[in-house]
Amino acid sequence: MLGTGGVVGNALTKSPITGIVSLTGSVFAGQKIMEAAAQNITKVSLELGGKAPAIVCADANLELAVNAIVSSKVIYSGQVCNCAERVYVEDSIYDKFLDMLAQKMSDVKVEDAFSNNNPDMSALVSKDQVDKVSEMVEFAKKEGAEVVVGGTRSNQFNKGYFYQPTLLTNVKQDMQIIQEEVFGPVLPVMKFGSLDEAIALSNDCEYGLTSSIFSENFNKVMHASQELQFGETYVNREHFEAIQGFHAGWKKSGLGGADGKHGMEEYLQTKVVYAQYRS
Would residue 10 count as lying in a domain? Predict the structure, then answer.
């Protein structure tokens, strides 16, 4: 079947012959699918939005953390639900880390995806998306955020919807830029004093897909892995799952999951047959 989501999607989700509806998309789209699927109690597997926190502790390998976070932010121009969307940095290393992060973001090469220069990042998917990213950054600036790198559209190309890799500071936990998914190359950064504070700030969000911690302390890593309310926690690495793992969100980031053995089981039904044999 071909057609728009509102037409084909409704037909599939409301059909009594559909066994499962699987979606990777927005929270809004997931809510609509759940409403439509409820008519026939059709099973759904939803991988929705994310607002992934990255926690950087004072004992972290800072170069590794910077490279991993920036790589995670600019892959597909930030249009991946796994992407690092906010960074919490321990106060004792904040200034040093911010300088390193700013330099790395400034060095990101943005070009036409069809060029031969192997760019790090290209355009966003549509005019609507680049407008949304731009509006969120402008709103953050009105709320007091400061732009360290980027903060505007890129106009060096004659076509495409480009937005500069952007680093924001002076942000607060209740700001839209911290709470809502940007889905673009924008990275707000905040300080924290203790690991428990960083975990509390990370969990203060309606999403629960991916998260990360950068630390050389095993006890900190294990504590954060247990307390972070996210389906995935990456340790000292870029935000991106392995296909043999189980990719699943908590809270408004979805139901069910994909990848690996447990992802395959989402598409199976269990049946038990009881046969009594008498000789």
Answer: yes
Output Rg (C-alpha) for the chain, integer angstroms: 21
Pull the structure tokens for residue 30: 């997931």
Q: b/e per residue, 261-278, with b = 16+ CB within 10 A?
A: eebeebeeeeeeeeeeee
Q: What is the pTM of this model?
A: 0.92
Q: How many CB atoms lie within 10 A of CB 191?
A: 18
The residues, ordered by sequence, that sit 6+ positions from 124 with a Cβ below 8 Å of its Cβ are 77, 79, 130, 133, 161, 162, 163, 184
b/e sequence 220-258, b meaning 16+ C-beta within 10 Å: bbebbeeebebbbbbeeebbbbeeeebbbbbbbbbbbbb
Query: For this structure, is 47 an active site residue?
Result: yes
Q: Are 97 and 222 members of one domain?
A: yes
Q: In this structure, how many other beta carbons lie within 10 angstroms of the beta carbon of residue 126?
A: 10
pLDDT band at 3 (very low <50, low <70, confident <90, very high): low
Distance separating alpha carbons of residues 46 and 247, to the nearest angstrom: 11
Q: Residues 197-220: pLDDT tens digits? A: 999 999 999 999 999 999 999 999
Task: Spot the catalytic one: 35, 57, 81, 266.
Answer: 81
> How far is the first Cα of the chain from the last one, in angstroms, to the nearest whole number?
53
In which domain, by residue range, is 43 found? 5-48+245-265
Measured distance CA(48)–CA(139) in Å, rounded: 24
